[in-house]
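Pilot study result, target chain (208 residues):
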Amino acid sequence: MTRPPTAAQRRVIEAADPVTGRLKGTEAQLTALVKRGLAFRHPRPPHDHFLTPAGHRVRETPEPVAAVEAPVAAEAGVFAARIGGEETADTGPSRIREVRSAWEGLLELRRMTNPDGAVERPCGWERTHLVQAAALALEAAGHRPAGAEGGGYRVRATPQPEAVAVREPDSGALRACAATLEKAGWQVGEHTEPRTGARYVLASPRRV
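Predicted structure:
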């Protein structure tokens, strides 16, 4: 991309589905985004258009970068998986439906963007949204994120490339989180904090 998208194109990008990246716009707008490498046209009917990784980066450019240990905040009206530590946490039926829909959308994104159409292996979007992707896998499987009172999982970025740390004060629940991520296509391993002796899981998206 040699120049930034126009205001109209940016509006199309920002209105894309937050999980799948599916776009809506005029044929001219979508074609222009494809030419810029910000979108691609799916080869199968109905030939919808989706954001490429570059398109996702454009959409996220205005957003402030969160600190490693700070929970990722969701914009108003935009779904965000719970990474643990959020002050408020709706656990009602509407949230369950949102999580289920987001997970199904992510599986569809895997099917459409992985070269072999595999849904058992993380896709490019997950590799650029490690914390959110891991948290979505955990929340969709029914694990409880940590609340203000403590207890539950916390997913955080790490200095290691393509790796997140999952912490859970309950050892049994931590092992269950590791099993869920492994089933979702992540490589996992348990580790011990040298200073505190606390156990945590290090997880990375599997490539093969």
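One observation from the pilot: Helices lie at 7-14, 27-35, 53-60, 93-113, 124-128, 130-140, 171-183. A full batch analysis is planned for the follow-on phase.
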